[in-house]
Amino acid sequence: MTAVDFRKITLVVLLQLWAATSLRNSGWLKILTVSYFFGSFLNHNLFLAIHELSHNLAFSTPVYNRWLGIFANLPIGVPMSVTFQKYHLEHHRYQGVDGIDMDIPSQTEANVVTSVLAKSVWVISQLFFYALRPLFLNPKPPGIWEFTNLVIQLTLDATMVYFWGWKSLAYLILSTFVGGGMHPMAGHFISEHYVFKPDQETYSYYGPFNLVTWCVGYHNEHHDFPRIPGNKLYKVKEIAPEYYESFKSYRSWSQVIYMYIMDQTVGPYSRMKRKVSTVKKDK
């Protein structure tokens, strides 16, 4: 067993499901407020736990990590754990390769999202872009594990609606999408690879939110050593500071969102891209 503790994941899952059932008779304003200021942090924590599990950092046996990822997926409301792993591992293997790395915004996004208003809407909706972009640009046939993820997730969703009503399920889904939009936690989507400094492709964040995001902020370190659990990556920086201290880094994800929206020279196109012809894709 490594540093990704299934007990912590279980605690967050149960706490979020408890919150969802407790809000079953609440007004929509209260549900939205609790989603933004509470549930979003829990679901984002689970999303980044799934990120760790996609690298098999909880168990030495990969299938156990996959099952735990499906379990961590439950409060997120929509099935994504198994599919995320497929695309995320390609992001590591083919970082920046246009047409393969689905972390790269599409050309349509780059052409349309140029103004402050458009970038604000894009930030609010960025989880939709992350979810839909692969379906159009690099679709993959689903397998038995995607089907398993889907059935288990729909079973949980249907159970929530049957016993506690639509508001409980709405709370879970709202917690996912408001937490992935104009939210301090969501700043990591932009901070990790959007180029604010010429010639630097990946950026780390050394702020306090690492405590609740499985240290995803140590992103240069993570790409160098993807098999090291997030909460151990600080040791990489301590052991080899000469490789990391010269890089630009962040202390605030909120500041990154602000810079992204307000800086007219930055947008979805602000990514280092490589042509697919320059990389030999695995068969």
UniProtKB/TrEMBL annotation:
Residue ranges constituting the Fatty acid desaturase domain according to the UniProt record: 27-251
One GO CC term on file: membrane
GO biological process: ceramide biosynthetic process
GO molecular function: sphingolipid delta-4 desaturase activity
InterPro entries associated with the record: DES1/DES2, FA_desaturase_dom
Domain of life: Eukaryota
Protein name per its UniProtKB record: Fatty acid desaturase domain-containing protein
Species per Swiss-Prot/TrEMBL record: Kingdonia uniflora
Lineage: Eukaryota, Viridiplantae, Streptophyta, Embryophyta, Tracheophyta
